[in-house]
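User: Sequence in, structure out. Go.
Assistant: Echoing your sequence, followed by the structure tokens.
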Amino acid sequence: MLHAINKEVPLNIQIIENMDDDCLQSAAKPDWHRCFEVLYIVKGKGICLIDLEKFEISDNMILCLRPDQVRQFQANGDILGYRISFTESFFSIGEQEDDLMYQSAIIESIPRSACVALQNDITNDMKEILKKMIIEFDNDCLFRTEMLRRYLKIFLVYVARQFEDSVDKIMQTRNIEMAQKFKTLVDKNFITKKTVAEYAAMLFVTPNYLNTVVKKMTGYSARYHIRQRIVLEAKRKATHSGLCMKEIAYYLGFMDISHFSKYFKNATGINFSEFKKETYLMQIAD
């Protein structure tokens, strides 16, 4: 029998007390999910097929499913446990950006079609968290949704810990990807976009967060990379195009030539005219 608790929140908890014939028939039909699902088997045996991959179910096991995975569950006798379903937006809405990235990593650290036997020393803690979630779900107290979200986060952290080191690896991968995307965007847009804020907006993060990630991955700030890309193009034009400083400044989007001159000197340590002269002398020497 399943007791469904539904209070118009994008989170649902079902208490599994037993599997009678009718429920077994229903559970034997493939189910297509459009939310995250955690099936916690406290006691019982059975088989679960997730996208045709077979998992043997036994006491103190966790099954995790992602949206749109096909799940087919067959119980061998009575089953005691819980089924928790939630949307990603419920898990992350209202969080600060750093927390949001980390929480996404918690979800992604759980492998696709994950099935794991829980360590005995954490089962009591996880049961207590679930009990608190059910109590909170069944009342209308102030900040109820926030309490549920926090309990869910703690519960999923326990689950994620069964897959050691995955969270850190996911975060590292995400940081590398963001730094690469940032550098690609700079290459494509440096003429029209010259501030960290503009690139942060394109990546849907805050300027501080972008700067932190880029500096961590490259050793230099996001502003440094933008400036170096602009200066590199200025040097290329000065060396190979035959354009004067005014023309190069306009090409790079600087309407004020004096501003461009200061910008170039701050980035390179020499005046634009000095750089062009040195380049010219090197070409003659060659």
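User: And one key feature?
Assistant: Residues 1-7, 21-27 have pLDDT under 50 and may be disordered.
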